[in-house]
Design a protein that fits this description.
The chain is of the alpha+beta class and 240 residues long. It is 46% helix and 9% strand. The chain has a four-stranded mixed beta sheet with strand order 1-4-2-3. β2 (157-162), α5 (180-198) and β3 form a beta-alpha-beta unit. α1 runs antiparallel to α2 and α4 (136-150) crosses α5. The longest helix has 47 residues, at 31-77. The radius of gyration is 58 Å and the shape is rod-shaped.
Length: 240
Amino acid sequence: MISPRLLPLFGWALALSTASLLSGCGPDVSEEELAKLRSNQTLLTKLQADATQWAKERKQLQEAVQAAKIEIDRLSASPQAATPAPKEVEASAAPVAPKEPTPPPPAPVATAPQSQDVLVLGNLPIFEPGSVDITPAGAAKLKEIAPALRRVAAGQKIVVVGHADPIPPGKNIKERLPDNWAISSARAQAVIRYLVWGEGLPADRFVLEAMGSSDPVAGNDTRAGRQQNQRVEIRIQGGS
């Protein structure tokens, strides 16, 4: 490829060569020479067009460079104009005080049951079916009410009443607990034993009563009703 700077010189040389060929040719010019002349003429025309286009592009480039220099000089003379000053932030009228955290609710305090209170341990299975052994759920319930029982006044008694349904005892406990009276008494004893041995309540504060199946609170024709009747009640007796 011919450098743009050499295009005028190359075109001038090509023009001289073509003119020389034309001047040296007589009337008997061969076809080969005519073809060569036509090729030189075409190439000369193309080179002239390329030279004109190159001159135009060079002028545009020079104008762009000159404009860039002017812009650089302008920005260098006033640097603050290129970078806008940061906008001042208006200060608030008054500082906002931090919000105080909401205090947690007070922990519930176990209150001592009064003489008319009756605590029924029948809403959850305190005992295994057909057994007088306290279940883990029953032990958790007794542990929950123990702090309130400790607050019972000195002149009051804690009466633990055992109840049963009319279903006869099973073979596994019939030898030592022959009837429902014995079952209701054994269940009341199990509750007192847990509160005394497990929670440290004084034994002389307790009174045991056994009702057997004589005081049902639900029908015994369904399992749910019988479970309600297999209950233990804790009452406070004496005092005001």
